[in-house]
Amino acid sequence: MTRKSDGIVVGYDGSPGAERALRWAVREAWERGTVLTVCLAWAPEYLAMLGEASVYDLARRKGEEILAKGAGYAGDALGPETVRPVLARGPAARVLCEQSGTAEMVVAGARGHGGVAGQRLGSVAWQVAMYGHGPVVIVSGQGHATGHAAGPVVAGLDQSPASRAVAAFAFREAELHRVPLLAVCALADAAGVLGGAREMEAAFSRAITLLEKEHPDVTVLRHVAQGSPRTALLAAASEAQLLVVGCRGRGGVHGMSLGSVAQAVLHHAPCPVAVIRPPAAG
Prior knowledge:
The chain has 282 residues and is of the alpha/beta class.
């Protein structure tokens, strides 16, 4: 498989949330054997509009200092030859979304320097999760976010268009980190017809059986919940190292970037959350 050029891209601004995201991304790059791009966005457009060269230059120099710190930490852990520092001009969300087009995944902290006190998910993380082109991992400041804990990888599987991509990503994470995979199916998502829940559970069982054959080294735990997906996933995530969900489930509105379940777990999950999109048609 051809490796994408930027490997793993992590957004970094020196904030506590960015430090957690960087640590997570460093461990992930190490396990995947890939390059890590540490990206800091500087000088939003309003600085240029001020017309003050001194302010503009100061922002750039400050950005260079912060980026050097983050890239230095990553280089010490991975080797400098596998770390690519990028000082990018523009709003952070736009820069990271653009970078996501050539990345294996994009990693961002739940909140950066501009976050509102008490807010668990900042605008940059929200926009990247909404509009990123590939896998997006949002690392929160709660629970196991500071690293890959020994808990399982949890995957929400509902036979939606994104479900197979979710399973592929989650199985690889479980393989890389040598932990079990907990596959969750919530029957509240079943079609409202007689026997819909039974059909959904049977389809879930068949899909997991096939995936177990494809990934014999992964211990798979199955959980079929009677309630809502968000309740089942948040409960399962309490001891997880990573929660993997599709961008939109079976009940999502066509054209919606993020469904209600993905939105809920991004705001409330106690561990990092990976949002996966189905492969583009082509």
